[in-house]
Amino acid sequence: MILFPAIDLKDGQCVRLVQGDMDRATVFSDTPAEQAKVFENQGFEWLHLVDLNGAFEGKPVNGDAVEAILKTVSLPAQLGGGIRSMQQIEAWLDKGIARVILGTAALRDPQLVIDACKTWPGKIAVGVDAKDGYVAVEGWAEVSDITALDLAKRFEDAGVAALIYTDISRDGAMQGMNVAGTAELANSVGIPVIASGGVTNLDDLHALKAANAPGIIGVISGRAIYDGRLDPAEALAVLKEAA
Predict the structure, then answer these.
(1) Pick from 90, 71, 89: which is nearest to 80 by CA?
(2) Handedness of CA 157, 126, 174, 4 (dihedral sign)
(3) 129 catalytic per annotation
(4) Is residue 145 among the annotated active site residues?
(5) pTM, rounded to two decimals
């Protein structure tokens, strides 16, 4: 399993939200590129980047910060937040993003996901953000009537590189992961799943391993790494054992 440290960008800063609430943001760094370098030096192999302003506004907003990160580290990075067109996907891939995450677009414009997967094989992930089992979009401000599993199944044969599954109620709340829900999704579709939301400590990583869901290929952590509850070296070692 790959451990993805999260760099969530709001107004050019590296922050963490509680349950996606922009008014409940904790700033962890004013220089996201420097934070990315710290993660690289700690031995992480990927970065997970989110343009939070972009997710709400429906267009890239923190582009300068993302580009600064790409120039500072050599790690591959996946990026989501406000990416809603083929042109935006192409622009980010051209700038060096390794994988683009489509969230709101996956629900509103599923054909975009299908076309993007054909055009850029292995470069497109779908963000499945769920609240009480139902998909939330527009920066989690709106909850749809589509279940997370139904959305995932729509793209079963599209060539999606990964599903990034987030239980919104757990995200940033330090209450532990929804391991059962993540495993259920991973065992119900053929698309690899990256778990997100609620990682608190090593126990969560052990629980994810113990879920015996081969489809779970990675896990994203933000606040637990920033506030020291999750030691990078220990966490990376636990997930390497899983392999």
Answers:
(1) 89
(2) positive
(3) yes
(4) no
(5) 0.94
DSSP string for residues in 45-110: --EEEEEHHHHHHTS---HHHHHHHHHH--S-EEEESS--SHHHHHHHHHHT-SEEEESHHHHH-H
The 10 Å Cβ neighbour count of residue 106 is 27
Element (H, E) at 6: strand 2-10
pLDDT in tens, 159-185: 999 999 998 876 655 678 999 999 999
Catalytic residue among 8, 51, 167, 204: 8
Q: Choosing from 30, 51, 115, 129, which is the catalytic residue?
A: 129
Structure tokens at 188: 């119900």
Tell me the two tokens of residue 186: 């991973």
**pLDDT recorded at residue 140:** 60
| Residue 63 C-alpha from the chain's centroid | 17
Query: How far is the C-alpha of 50 from the C-alpha of 39, rounded, in Å?
Result: 16
pLDDT above 70 covers a percentage of the chain that reads 95
Task: Please report which helix (H) or strand (E) contains residue 35, including its range.
Answer: helix 32-41
What is the rounded CA–CA span in Å between residue 80 and residue 55?
8
Task: Give the per-residue pLDDT at 165.
Answer: 95
Q: Which residues contact 83 (CB under 8 A, 6 or more apart)?
A: 54, 60, 89, 92, 100, 101, 102, 105
Cβ neighbors of 166 (< 8 A, separation 6 or more) are 127, 128, 129, 130, 196, 197, 220
Residues of the chain with pLDDT under 70: 138-141, 170-174, 242-243
Measured CA to CA, the distance from residue 165 to residue 54 in angstroms comes to 19
